[in-house]
Here is the input.
Amino acid sequence: MSAFRTTTGRAFVRRAAVLASALAVLGTVASCGTGTSTAASGVTTASDAGDASAVTASGRTAELATARCHTSELRARVGGVDPGAGQRNFPVVLTNVSSHACTLYGYPGAAFVDASGRQVGPDPKRSPGDAVRVALEPGESAWAGLRYSAPGISGARTATPAALLVTPPDERDSLKVPWTAGAVPVAGDFSSVFVTVLGEGTGP
Here is the structure.
């Protein structure tokens, strides 16, 4: 009777050990499966967040890049003369002095004025050219060419302006730049003044 109990007890212990081992293996497999699922989910979530951030950043860049530069956000100056073939050429430079990006597109307005603010001569004519949208980060510049025939050669009637008024594209307010380059043609043959479309940089 005692031998039977001993045998039966040993068999029960072995079965319990086998069962415990099986449960342990199943637990390990289940744990591994859960870990894999969690990792995959984390990668997907991170990717989605990254994509969303990229889209948001792209949207901000596009918004900044399409905002027009206003007169109050710009500073104007006239560069040095570049003489050649009886012509006098000047770069008219617009610089972004704001804290954000903006764009310029097309031709600037320009007009010579005397000390009292009265316009001297007709408005400059637009030289043919393909307009491009120029994006300006803070501190960056765009320029347009101002050109006319040298009065000493053309024989045109002249006047000496006190300033050049520069109006950014699609704006109403102008920037006043002192004019120090002497007489300009205002009437007669070969008296036209020409302005080009805006391009990147500060001159040719």
Notes: Residues 1-14, 16-61 have pLDDT under 50 and may be disordered.
